Amino acid sequence: MAKPKLQAPVVKNQYIELAITGLGHEGEGVGKYEGFTIFVPNALPGEQIQAKVVRVQKTYAYGRLIKIIAATPDRAEPACPIFHRCGGCHLQHLSYPAQLQHKRQSVVDALTRIGKLEGVTVHETLGMDNPWRYRNKAQVPLGEIDGRLAVGFYAPRSHDLIEMQSCDIQHMYNDQIVHTTKEILQELGISQYEEATGRGIVRHLIGRTAVHTDETMLVLVTNGRKIPQKDVLIERLRQRIPHLVSIVQNINTERTNVIFGRETLTLWGKDAITDTIGSIKFEISARSFFQVNPVQTEVLYGKALEYAQLSGSETVIDAYCGIGTISLFLAQKARAVYGVEIVPEAIEDAKRNAELNEITNTHFTAGEAETVIPAWYHDGIRADVLVVDPPRKGCDERLLATIADMKPERVVYVSCNPGTLARDLRYLEDHGYKTVEVQPVDMFPHTFHVECCVLLKWSGDE
Ligand code: SAH
After folding, report:
1. d(CA 232, CA 235)
2. Catalytic site residue 416?
3. pTM score, two decimals?
4. Which residue from 40, 205, 280, 393 has the least number of CB within 10 angstroms?
């Protein structure tokens, strides 16, 4: 066995040359210096670089990129002028095909290293034809820069506003909503909220676009009920923002980082906009959750439907069902779908969406998947197909244990974190399941997020 290293081979402020061999979880370049791991933001795999060591920990260090000695052909010029300061995107300096390859590789690495899974088919990442302007929701704080009203983003881990003129991953309509509203607020002298003093009126602007119906919504989050010149404001917003069908005010008087307050009022137009995923309609109100990239959601959940291989007679459980997107997708081809989700408001939305689409074979319950599904099992509910779409921390072991007891023929695992996915697949493999195939789907181009859909089959009795 190698002796444990007692000391890092680098010190702070040291200049080192490094070959970058991989990307870390947040898109940083990773290389080894005398066997010691060094993270260098903005450096890319395949590059030879010079870095200055800025932070040394026991088992790794961070370096600042000083010079690229040999660049990779995959390096791209970031499209956005504030890419290096904003923190919303992580990979604009990597060409899109290379991003897709990297995302697939990170799934393969997690499956082998963490899941100890050999020989699983991992398909090429399904990317977007046009990986820009895909976000359907913009949520931006207001601030003041040189005496002017400004919109932008907070720099990573801070509350310094970085001004944004246009966001290339945002739907064009949302960009228009945000910038036109800012102009009108400035014209009317309606002030922005100031965190330091708690004074001023408008805290955040939220633009939402329904990409399939072209309806748009503006939400003004304000520090109080009163908005000066409200009628003129509404009139100008209506005249100058295309496709606007809803203007909503949310009141947040707390001194907090939380964006929304408790009270929401419709100032003009509809309470909600309507969008579709596949053939299913969804009503999206100011605060409801909705998938951020509707185009790729359809691709990802289409894969889940394909993997579920439904003939119409199956009982399906959709664990972590959110607003029921997957449940409603599958309900059209199944006998019954049982959805469970921890947020009660999301379950209300799921039920409303079922009604809106006249789908009558779904049953939604609010609660923890790891508590509700064992109770269903106890009550005699048996799923032929079980779908899970958990948050980053993956599935609770109590849920996995219930799956192993219930033995649904197929498990479809939708994951936003390859690490916890690999851990959970190992558990299921150890309890009689076989991982058949894995399909990564790029839901968030230019960011480090990796999503995939996995098909598992019961094979324990073979
Ligand atoms: N498929 C969903 C989105 C899933 S995101 C949709 O289409 O809307 C993961 C969801 O898991 C979130 O909605 C989150 O609120 C929920 N969640 C987190 N922990 C949970 C738990 N222990 N039990 C059930 N749901 C949980």
Report:
1. 5
2. yes
3. 0.93
4. 393
